[in-house]
Amino acid sequence: MATFLYKLGRISFRRRHLVALIWVALLTLAGVGAASAPAAGNSSFSIPGTEAQKAFDLLEQRFPGMSADGATARVVFKAPSGEKMTDPGNRATVRETVKELADGSEVASVTDPYQAKAVSKDGTIAYAQVSYKVSGMELDDASKDALEDTAQDARQAGLTVEIGGDALQAVPHTGSSEIIGIAVAAVVLVITFGSLVAAGLPLLTALVGVGIGVSAITALAGTLDLGSTTSTLAMMIGLAVGIDYALFIVSRYRAELAEGRDREEAVGRAVGTAGSAVVFAGLTVVIALVGLSVVNIPMLTKMGIAAAGTVAIAVLIALTMIPALLGYAGRRVKPAGEKGKLLGRAKAQEKPAKPNLGTRWASFVVRRPIAVLLLGVVGLGAAAVPAASLELGLPDDGSQPTSTTQRRAYDLLSEGFGPGFNGPLMVVVDAKDSDDPKAAFTETGDEIKGLKDVVTVTPPAPNKAGDTATITVIPGSKPSSVTTENLVHGIRDAGAGIKADTDANVLVTGSTAMNIDVSEKLNDALVPYLVLVVGLAFLLLIVVFRSILVPLKAALGFLLSVMAALGAVVAVFQWGWLADLMGVEQTGPVMSMMPIFMVGVVFGLAMDYEVFLVTRMREAHVHGEKPAQAVVTGFRHGARVVTAAAVIMMAVFAGFIGSSESMVKMIGFGLAIAVFFDAFVVRMAIVPAVLALLGRTAWWLPKWLDRALPNVDVEGEGLRTASGDPDRELVRT
């Protein structure tokens, strides 16, 4: 591995014009493809294997044209103070609005509040329901604009009008804070390298990689049904790892220059050693992202694969484009320990520098490993305490900020019709195999009426064939409550008895039931996903470190950091701590996919730091240093760079906290705090403490396993021995 990458680095350095041309051509090709592709809509949304999805599919068959899983909009009207919605003037305005709402190629049906008895008992609130032929994620912008314009016309007539439902789903925007994150990364790189040129290389290559990845996603969006939100994760992860991977290559290059090697040789050795760590670090991230497919939620699978592709591009750019750009930079990238030209001034450090902060910290940890280990574990344990109160759910309109029309519509419906009205349940009775379908429909309705927390049960509405009927159930509690979840399970349990009596199948669907099913599906997939991802990465790290205990320690440290990060997410987004600072307008349950998402992404990123930091320790140990000294050596060479990489990654992720979408905001915060815990507590404190306590045992590997494992030479031993002299430059390839 090291020898191959060494040759690749030197070739890229010598053929820099060709390498640069290839990457520019790829960026141009992806950009042209993205520009010429039709505008990315929202991807289709389905959750295979859930009862709610089965019910939707059944309704498509038995009720052709019903578009049961299509988008819905509830246009809620409130009369001015002292008036009622039944007053002639208000009635005329509403009916004119209903007529306008019915216009549109994607509109399936619109209900008249007065015919559907959708007026509150006090007469002050009414609503019209608009059903669309396509889902909210596929709805055209023109349909959304028409919906909002019609509501605005009714407002001008004097009514309060708000719009709820999923028809107004919007593509999230991240705001200026994302740019601030990149700016922070630039400042950190300048401080780390002391040179604008050296600092600019990781930023440039990361932007090229993200540009290719995101443009390719945009170009293929229509063909592969990739939604407009698919690129968000790819951009987030691609920027972070792209900067970090390039940072490690450039840092190792400067270290090789400082040892007196010429520039081509320094590039080769940098790619052969740090590049090996980049390859395996990238593999762990790719495994974690692709592994999201085990959840069997197509949207999540596509997001994971798209982000994994962007990570793969970042690895290839670090191995080829960085060496090429270093060739162009020439002497403007200085050896380590020598300041570059910054703000028009150049300084050289001629006196031997005192031990750096990484060396002093590692020496302290090696002297007091037990105290540092206990402090780190107890601190992360304390941060993880809120995770014990974790409540999972998918966001509905009730979790939206109060400034949004969706939230105001939600509140108006709760005021006029009760909190459960925002989460109606649709019960589908499939009586095709029943001898008496009508009796099955009636028995189902009667059984549901006897359950707790049921406010309203509509009469069964059969299809033309008379073998399937729908029943709408209005719960007494809000959609995201545990009581409503229990009601869904209660209806499904009652369905088993109805099946035994009438041979009719009872299915529960609707957005509320779908949210419950998705949450349970994600919870059920968490353990298998964890076993798969951690297991594969554990095997990969055994190959990299040729040790059993080092990968085991890495996995356990990751579990500590991810639990602490989940605790922080609960404290902010569920409990409301520092909510104003984070821009969290509405607290509530943590998004159901957050645990499995954090496990996947954070594990891959955590292994990045493990590989980058510990490979330098193993390299020193393989070359003859004692275990404790190898820990110090690893920190002397790697702590500054790992620290810079962690700060950069935190800045990039934190930039997404400014997103308008609560899901993206939560993910950005969760990943940023997880990187902080993992990089600065686990990798910088717990890891050296454990390695100091284990001593030589840390690098133990059974002989039979040592013989069986391939030698990937991540520490670059082959580069030293090829010439027979570890201090000589390897001039020939």
TrEMBL record:
Residues 196-328 form the SSD domain. It is a multi-pass membrane protein. The chain crosses the membrane at residues 179-199, 206-224, 230-250, 271-297, 303-329, 370-390, 526-549, 556-578, 590-609, 641-660, 666-694. Keywords: Cell membrane, Membrane, Transmembrane, Transmembrane helix. Pfam families: MMPL. The keyword Membrane applies. It is found in: Cell membrane. The keyword Transmembrane helix applies. Belongs to the resistance-nodulation-cell division (RND) (TC 2.A.6) family. MmpL subfamily. This is Membrane protein. It comes from Streptomyces lomondensis.
